Amino acid sequence: MMKGAMRRAKKVRQGDKTRRDRDGGREKKIEEKQEEAEMKERRNEEQRRDEERGEKIQENETKRQDKTRQGQERQGQTNMEKKNDEETR
């Protein structure tokens, strides 16, 4: 009889261990899912920032191009004026 009682006690203890393991596994899975969600949020934020930066960079480039065009046009006008002045002299 003692052997049977000891076996049952051992099984109960083992059962408790497996329950603990299962609960711990659940907690780990929950933590992993939370970490994954946080990583996704970070990636999304970084992408948004990069997109905003990209738009700003494009705006700056267009402004720069406009300025260079204006500068070239002005320079072209001054060159034309110089040619006209030389021709009139």
UniProtKB/TrEMBL annotation:
Record field: compositional bias (Basic residues): 1-12
Region Disordered: start-end pairs: 1-89
Domain of life: Eukaryota
Bias (Basic and acidic residues): 13-72, 80-89
Name of the protein: Uncharacterized protein
